[in-house]
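Hey L., structure's done. Input below.
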Amino acid sequence: MLRIWGRASSSNVMKVLWLCEELSIPFERIDAGGAFGRTKEPDYLAKNPNALVPVIEEPDGFCLFESNAILRYLVRARAPGHALYPAGPREAADIDRWMDWQLSALNAPMTTIFFTWVRIPEPERDYAAAGKARDASERLWRMVEARLAGQDFICGDALTLADIAVGIYVHRWFALPIERPELPGLAAWYARLKQRPGYATHVAVPMT
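Output:
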């Protein structure tokens, strides 16, 4: 059985758990990271020298870190050609760019907002930095809003890995106590994601 190393509250772990539900992949999740520790232990560092989560471990001992790489691998290994990550090079590239965009653009401001309101004790919060991050995030979510015009998901009318990579943060965008503009397409997309059992179980949960 596939092992997933990482705490359930990690957004990057959430991606993998959600995908496993979409593909009906049986898995065992092992708590690691944050308060659970383990990531600095020698056996874990042998799996991921970055000391971060998630890591997946196959029954034959193959290990892989980096959440978006894990998503691509699991589709290729368990369901090659699936609509989540089609075999066509242009379709795959369209999905890849949004997955890369999540890491290169959306990750930083959304992490700042999340840490400010959830992880950092109130006396230590930098609200000015959080405000700038909120503004940056709004600009990025407007890009997603434009992309969703006339279609249900980021890359068309079917869920793909692009939705999984970006969708972990749209829950936080709507759930955190921040000012948000009216973005009806984004709100409708979020509502569609919440109807998927994997998203409802692993992503749209109380934040810790």
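The mean pLDDT is 97. The beta strands are 2-5, 27-30, 55-57, 63-65.

-- N.
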